[in-house]
Design goal:
Blueprint lengths: L1 H21 L7 E2 L5 E2 L26 E5 L4 E4 L1 E5 L7 E6 L7 E8 L6 E4 L4 E8 L10 E2 L9 E7 L4 E6 L2 E4 L4 E6 L2 E6 L2 E2 L1
Parallel strand pairs: 5-16
Antiparallel strand pairs: 1-2, 3-4, 3-14, 5-6, 6-7, 7-9, 8-11, 9-10, 10-13, 11-12, 12-15, 13-14
Length: about 200
């Protein structure tokens, strides 16, 4: 009789050991030599940033800003727009003054070689900056461009583009005052590309 009771006690003790093992919450973790949890290959509890720019990365609107030219011209811009029509190899961005206190338009463009996000240089194609008066101006203002300045590289860099948004920047050093026929310096040397309603 004593032998039967002892055998049953052993069976129950072994069953309890199995239940305890199933409660182990380490899951797919193993331990290193110090007994600390060690991550197994393939586990990635925290995904790293893949560096891809998305619409959520759009910077704040960089306006108003003032373009100052060494001939004394100083013009403020606060109204951006962009266009990149489907199937076109052109990209154009415009800045105007919303209250129409002046009718200058600042144009930055890549013509004939645009192929999406990236950098474009005037050394490799038609990349230029222009500032001119639109209809309604008094005609007394000068017209400016970069394409008539020899050796002055213009670089348009687009960081993001979709059917609604675009942003980036344009770098330049000087422009040609076509009214006075003289090279003028421009400040700032980096101008913003920023649009939240893209014409496509």
């Amino acid at each position: 009789m004593h032998h039967v009771v002892w055998s049953m006690a052993l069976v129950f003790a072994c069953g309890g050991k199995d239940d305890d093992a199933s409660d182990d919450d380490t899951g797919a973790w193993s331990s290193d030599a110090d007994g600390a949890p060690m991550e197994l290959d393939g586990d990635d509890p925290e995904e790293e940033d893949d560096g891809i720019t998305t619409a959520e990365d759009m910077p704040a609107k960089p306006a108003p800003f003032t373009l100052t030219i060494s001939d004394g011209t100083s013009v403020e811009f606060d109204l951006p727009s962009c266009s990149h029509y489907r199937g076109s190899s052109n990209f154009r961005t415009f800045w105007r003054k919303e209250d129409r206190s002046h009718v200058y338009v600042l144009i930055m463009e890549v013509m004939g070689s645009f192929d999406g996000v990236g950098s474009y240089s005037s050394n490799d194609g038609t990349v230029r900056v222009k500032m001119q008066q639109e209809a309604g101006g008094d005609g007394s203002g000068s017209s400016f461009n970069t394409n008539d300045v020899e050796g002055a590289e213009v670089i348009l860099t687009l960081d993001y583009l979709d059917e609604d948004l675009a942003w980036g920047e344009v770098s330049l050093t000087s422009m040609w005052n076509s009214t006075q026929e003289v090279v003028v310096d421009v400040t700032p040397n980096t101008l913003p590309v920023w649009c939240e309603d893209l014409a496509i």
